[in-house]
Write the structure tokens for this entry.
Amino acid sequence: MRTIIEPFRIKSVEPLRHTTREERERFLEDAGYNLFLIAARHILIDLLTDSGTSAMSTEQWAAIMRGDESYAGSESFFRLKRVADDLTGLRHMVPAHQGRAAERILFTVMCKPGHIVPSNTHFDTTRANIEFTGARAVDLPVPEAADTQAQLAFKGNMDVAALEKLIAIEGEDRIPLVMLTVTNNSGGGQPVSMANIAAVQAVCARHGIPLYLDACRFAENAWFIRTREPGYTDWTPKRIAQKMFSYADGCTFSAKKDAFANIGGLLCSNDDRVFQQETNLLILTEGFPTYGGLAGRDLDAIAVGLEEVLDADYLNYRIVSTGYLGRHIADHGVPIVEPPGGHAIYIDAARMLPHIPKEQFPAQALAVELYRHAGIRSVEIGTLMFGDAAQHELLRLAIPRRVYTQSHIDYVVEAILEVNEHKQNIRGMVLLESAPSLRHFSARLRPLAS
Ligand code: F0G
């Protein structure tokens, strides 16, 4: 059979609420044209993020009932530790309430002012947590990643020559760790090849620098390796993931992505001394090391999710269905970051709306129009989010895991193609007010008059 179906059936459903165009116009006005400020009950299809928005399985809900809420030495912790150890092979693991909590602890222990932390591309919380310690976060993506239209199998790779050059110029003592984000979220959800992970590790090892994975979407990355990198077609996703982790000295992980959990994170390391310091900090801000800011039941949900996510049928469906959305809009003239990523499709709004200059936030104007037209929520990743540091003007459509069916995605395709037909009528936006940092959460805007 050629048709790829959702590899699950639905046992519990949540109703979606339709709104009228007039209502949406009012919600937009009240929210200052900032989709973060619209109540979720007024959204029909929510593609704001794939983080914490997954549908859990019957096995995960059953595991939640088994959660052991002991303060210390909870059985839930040991169940999670067995699964995490088997997957990562890393000696130490502590839970944290989500990915950025793990990041904060890691960088507080490892970084100080004057330090530099290179990555293929840092996610924004990762960058912010590095810079909060006084260190500098540096992105070293492969040069082809700058071209949204370039068709590359592993466009999330790090530029290994640029890493060597950075180490030669700055000195290895100033680089406490190197990170690889798999998949590369800020770079369009693009994967990193096993060969690139190995090459980065070899450079790190030569200079005695530890390599950490930001492993949020490790399973999606493993599937891309299986389908695109020679030599892995017969490997199970789990074996590929284990090999990816075998190059790492540690990892941060948000269980809100590739563990289908609604909350949670992990921090893993092979370094006994670093781990000791991390544990001390964890107790200050997250909790005792066998629960780290989570309930026992959350640990169980993560343990089950970490195994389920490596199911080949699930991963095939996941990557094919994201690609389905990407191809159906791109092949009808909507420019996207090519090729489609694992968890999201990114529309290149600068290309789609060349009449709107970046100072007028073309991707935000598109996000507003898509909501106004069809009740779909997406997120601007461009000048509104990053200011002058923005590399592109993108609109991200992130797909929650196991939540929407193909007919929901067909609705999204239809809406985007209709918006594309009247795109010349879309007007830019003016920023009225915002907090100095993280302004996309608080910004209030107004559309320019036509
Ligand atoms: N690293 C990457 C690559 C991420 O995508 C995220 C979160 C984090 C770290 C932080 O994890 O949210 O659990 O604290 N990304 C979400 C997103 C928020 O929408 O892409 P967290």
